[in-house]
Design a protein that fits this description.
It contains 5 helices and no strands. The protein is mainly α. The protein has one domain (about 5-129): Four Helix Bundle (Hemerythrin (Met), subunit A). The longest helix is centred in the last third of the chain and has 27 residues, at about 95-125.
């Protein structure tokens, strides 16, 4: 896969995750929300593994921008936190639905901020061209 194709795939993946999280937030029925969250749990590792694979997106950030190693460590830590958070949210599906939706909104905001960092750092890499 060409480097630019990799970056484009990351951006498409971000778009799909954002759209899916927004769908989950808009679900009125509790069972649909629960189903969406379980599906999101399966989507996140696939996306994160694609970014983290050897020679992939995060490796290009690590070697392509100043302080890249620290930035990649931060992104990987955020990936780990998202994995834990989605598991905790799913474990609490039977709890208060208003609180659950608040946690999902917080998750969505943090995911959007995370994606923005990746796009910003990724766009700085001259190796994509």
């Amino acid at each position: 896969m060409r480097p630019q194709d990799t970056f484009d795939a990351i951006v498409r993946g971000h778009r799909a995750l954002r759209k899916f999280v927004q769908k989950a937030l808009s679900d009125i029925e509790t069972e649909a929300l629960h189903s969406d969250l379980r599906e999101l749990r399966g989507m996140l590792p696939v996306h994160f593994d694609f970014e983290e694979r050897a020679g992939g997106f995060l490796e290009r950030i690590r070697t392509g921008i100043p302080a890249g190693e620290a930035e990649v460590d931060l992104l990987r830590a955020e990936h780990d936190a998202f994995r834990v958070d989605i598991e905790e949210i799913i474990a609490d599906l039977g709890g208060d639905q208003a609180e659950l939706r608040g946690r999902i909104r917080d998750f969505a905001t943090r995911l959007r901020d995370h994606e923005q960092k990746e796009r910003t750092w990724g766009s700085q890499i001259t190796l994509w061209r």
